[in-house]
Every structure is written in structure tokens, then in C-alpha cells.
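My current task is to audit a protein record that another person submitted. My question to you is simply how this chain folds and whether the C-alpha cells agree. This is what I was given:
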Amino acid sequence: MTARTLIKLVGSGLLAAVVGASQGGDGVIRQQQDDGLHEVTVVSPELVQPSGLRDYYELLASKTERPADLFAIWAFANRDDSINFFGKTATEFTYDRWKDRYASAKAKGFFPVSQLIAIRGDAVLRSFDGEKSSTAVLSGKDPTRFGVGQTACEILAVTFLRLPTPIRKDGKNPVILRFWLETHPFPALGQARLIARRLQQMLAHPEVRISMRTDPWFIESTAFPVWYPFAPFTDPPSAEQYRSEPEVYCWTDGSAAVQCR
């Protein structure tokens, strides 16, 4: 079935985004869903536009068999942009490697990218047109911004995975949620544990992995983008500046306790 036929069937161009990906054209280039969690990376000049991504999300949400706990959608105008954005291919990523990737991306020119995060019906859309960013709450409240005590938190990105084989002592293999948060002020370890608890409750998934900083430069995290387009643009930190800024990592291992370091 051609994209034109799909467009006629649904009365819009939205489903064209799922056609042609295997031939290198527009389409869904990454998709996973597990236990109420949905993640999509799509390449389409139409869907990188805020109105297109909004309509695409509403279409996807209408077709889920159960109310979704999470939608995390990234949209790009073309495949090269998506590759340059998620360019940390090494298992371990150093500052020097990141610096080369960032310089390469900057030399080619920053490009449009959009992101939608929806948590239990609350949805926010972030968009960057190549020069400036914008944010729009689509339904309910912004699920990426919340407070724990005196700490203001913002979810910059979220993904999830289920390991190929169980590694827990009890033999269970639950889905693991992975978050990157910008927090102000930087939380002490006790406060970081409370933030992790809050995220567990928000999505009703106990297994979490969370990185927190007071800036969006998660340089050595391989799953985080090379650059984050929805924060005010500043010069990237030097190696010394990057390492001088504190970062905390929290996780669960199947027990009731959240551990942080």
C-alpha cells in the first residue's frame, strides 16, 4: 500500500510517516512499546512541525489498546539530522569524543527537531526551528516539570528498555525507565532519592535509572543527544567546567530502596 493510498484512507497525511522508512525515505526509524510505554523516532518534514507532531501523537494515542502511561516521540526532517542528533555511538563516551561530534554538528548547522512527552494524558510538545525553541502544553499540565520540596525538576528526555535476559536475583525482568533531569538547586542524595520516588509514582513503574544535573550537558551519557535544543543556547562547557558541575545518578535494583551516588 502506497503512502498516497494511506492518506486517502485516513483523510490526512499523518500515516505517510510510517511508509517508506525501509527504503530510506520518511518514516518511523525507531519504535518500541512495552507495558503501557511508547517511544517513537520519526523522520518527516511534516511531523517535525509542531502542528504535525501534535496530530500524529493524537492519532497514535487514539489507537492504543489501553491508556498509555508514556509517549516519548522525537521528530526530525531527515535521517541525517536524526543520526547527527543521536550521534554517541560508542559504548563509553568521553568529553573529547563528544567535543568532536558537537563541533561537527555545529559546522553543519543546527537543524529543526521536535519532541513530545506525554505522561498519563498530560502532554507537552517542544520544538526547535533551527534558531529558537518553543514549548506548548497540549493537554492537562506539563508532565516534564514538577517540584519535590524546594527542588524544581524538568525531565529533558526519557526512554525505556527491557533487558534481553533477567539479571535480578528473583529472576524477574521488568521494564526499566531511563530519565535525564535538570534540577535547581542541585539535590543532596536524600532529596535525589525523593525525586526518584516521585518518578516511580508518576508512571507506576518501579525500575528507574535517573541522571540529574543543573544544566542540560549530559555529555558522557551515550543515550542522551549530542546537544539539547530546547534550553537557552549557551556555549558548551569546557572539560573543566563540565566536570566541576555535580551530577547524581539514582537507580533501583528490584528492592524497595532507591540508591544514589
Summary: The first helix runs from residue 3 to 10. The chain has two domains: 1-77+112-142, 144-261. The helical segments are 3-10, 50-62, 79-85, 95-108, 189-203, 239-244. DSSP finds six helices and twelve strands in the chain.
